Structure formats: C-alpha cells, structure tokens
Amino acid sequence: MRHLADQIEVMKNKGFKVTHQRLVVLDYLQHSKKHPSAEMIYNDLKEKYPTMSLATIYNTLEMLMKINLVVDIGAPEERRRFDGILVEHSHFFCTKCGKIEDLTVPGIEQLFEKAKAAHPGTINHCRLDFFGFCEECQAQEEQAVE
Amino acid sequence: MRHLADQIEVMKNKGFKVTHQRLVVLDYLQHSKKHPSAEMIYNDLKEKYPTMSLATIYNTLEMLMKINLVVDIGAPEERRRFDGILVEHSHFFCTKCGKIEDLTVPGIEQLFEKAKAAHPGTINHCRLDFFGFCEECQAQEEQAVE
DNA sequence: TAAATATTGACATTTATTCTTCTTTAGTCT
DNA sequence: AGACTAAAGAAGAATAAATGTCAATATTTA
Questions:
Q1: B17 touches strand C (CB under 7 A)
Q2: Contact B135 A120 (CB under 8 A)
Q3: Is nucleic acid strand D under 7 Å from B90's C-beta?
C-alpha cells in the first residue's frame, strides 16, 4: 500500500476509474504534511491544473476515503482536514493557534488490538488525538501571566 | 468536578455568568448518553424551555468547551456532536449507520502520560476513537455477501 | 475504435453555524 | 434591598462549507 501502482490497483478493484485528477489529489495528499482542507488542496493544485474544480476535490476525497487511502482527521475546525499519509501516527491540535502536528506515541497498536477483540462489530481504523497548547502558544501564555 | 456546585464555581472563577440556560444545557449534557448535536439539545430542551434559542445553545456549548466541561467528540458527520460526560472513555463510530457507542479501553492513561512527557507544549485532553461497522451493520454486510 | 458507463466541472442549493440587533439578566456596589 | 453595568439571551438574517444536478467529457472493455 505504499506505491502508486498498488493504489491504482485498489481503485480498479473497487470499481472506480483511475483518472488523472484522482491521481493528482492522491499524490498531493501523500506528499503533504499540512493536513490540508479541501480548499487548500484546491488552491495548491489549481496553479498546475487550472481546470480542476473544487467539487472534484470533494468528490475525489470522498472516494479516496471510501477505499481507505485517505482519512478525515477530525480537526476541531469548521473545515474538514485530510491526511493521506497512512503510517500509524497521532495528531496534536493546538487549541489556541489551530496548528496541527504529527506525533508518534508507541503503544496504540496494542490498544487497537484490545478494542478489536472486545467489540462485537468490526473495527478497521482508530485514531488517537491530543489537544492542548503548542510550544509557542504555551510560551506566550506564560509571558502573559507575569 | 462531579457536582453542579463545583461546576458553578468553575464558571464563576473563569469570569462567566451562571445563567439558567447554561445550567440547563450543562445538566442535560451530563445526563445524556446520546452524544447530541446542538440541534438535538435544542429540540429536547425547547419543550420545557420554549424561549431558549438555538444560538444560545451554540454559545453555551462554546463556553462550556472553553472551560472543559464539555467536549466536541469529532464525529465524522456534518453536525458536531458533544459529550458532557467526562469520565475517560472512547467512542466507536459506525461508518455505515452513523451510530456512536461508548467504549472503555484500558490503557489510555499510560499513552496520555507518555504523550504529555514527550510533547514540548502542554497537553490537556486526549481522545481515542474507533471506526468500523457496528454489530448490526456487520451482520447485514455478511448477509449481503451470501 | 466505438459503445456503454462513470466522472468531471460549473453552478445552484442546502443547511450547520455564526452574526447582528435589541432586550433581559446576573453580579456588584452603595 | 435597589440601581448600575457589562455580559448573555432571543430572534432572525447572514455566511459559507459541503453536496446535488446535469450536460459534456473521458475511460474502460470488447
């Protein structure tokens, strides 16, 4: 599931067409650490692909989520934010400035397995998120108190 | 932080007024296991409090989140869903029917502590969520394959 | 290469959430 | 207790993210 060729296979197997636009969005997401919103993707891609519409970005994201190549990270903002880097990792959300950081906390795997075993249905994805102040906002906060 | 009197203290200490509406919303959330949206809260409360407006629900929720008496559980839906029961627990989201279940997975505490220690800023809240098919949807899925 | 079918893109629409204005209330001071 | 002031509430309008529509176009498969 790491190479584009594999992902093209996944799309085909699930009955979806492999379009230029889909590959562009997928490639963008897999090389971005920005956790972009649909509109950020649109803005970044429209320079190179000026005819691509925002609706296509939404359609493509929905389709990529359906086949589990992209996830909605559940950011506490109006806009949905997406991640195409599916190596297991957590997110940290700064509740002051809105920054989103990647974070690796060892031990999620075990919890995931425990939950799978305990749940009567099927669990196929988990997320572990943290909320607080990032380093910069925390420093500002401490200055304000002085 | 379990009794209403304590929560009133929190509101006062942070400089917020303790209004009838705020207490009603807080009480509702702390006794509901529905993980309600703002509109669900509004609909449930308007029978008893017909003059309360939806905007007040939103304002109150935002304020209660600010003082950490309520959390947005980050449900994968258009509508935001809230939880006022702050005993540490996880959520399971059925990606087929949208059902939200409470789930307790032992071991989050340790991950939380690890993350706190590793992060340069301040972490004051974490969430561990699971996604998949609930028991009923899984059963339906299996029938469909036959 | 052509037919059948799925996807794209521009625009219209929906609707969750926020904003605005005016009125009411909570908390405080005398 | 009565009055003051700033915050909060009510009601409805405004905003904008996200989705739906549909003709035009691209892709697949034979």
A1: yes
A2: yes
A3: no
CATH number for the domain spanning A63: value is: 1.10.10.10
Closest Cα partner for A82 from A46, A44, A110? A44
Strand partners, A132: A94, B123
Q: Are B47 and B26 contained in the same domain?
A: yes
CATH of the domain at B97: 3.30.1490.190
* Amino acid residing at A88: E
Q: Residues with Cβ < 8 Å from A16, sequence gap 6 or more?
A: A22, A63, A67
How many structural domains are present in chain A? 2
- The rounded distance, in Å, linking the Cα atoms of A88 and A17 is 27
Largest CA distance in chain A: 61
State pLDDT tens for residues A84-123. 988 889 999 998 888 999 999 988 999 999 999 999 999 9
Q: In whole angstroms, give the CA distance from residue B50 to residue A138.
A: 42
Domain that holds residue A66: 1-85
CA dist B92 and B99 (Å) reads 8
Per residue in A25-70, pLDDT (tens digit) is: 999 999 898 999 998 999 889 888 888 888 889 999 999 998 888 9
Both A65 and A122 in a single domain?
no
Q: Where residue B2 falls among pLDDT bands split at 50, 70, 90? A: low
pLDDT tens for B17-64 read: 999 999 999 999 999 999 999 999 999 999 999 999 999 999 999 999
A61 touches chain B (CB under 8 A): no
**Do A66 and A72 form a contact (C-beta atoms < 8 A)?**
no
Residues B72 and B94 grouped into a single domain: no
Put simply, the answer to whether A129 touches B127 (Cβ < 8 Å) is yes
The predicted model gives B78-106 an average pLDDT of: 92
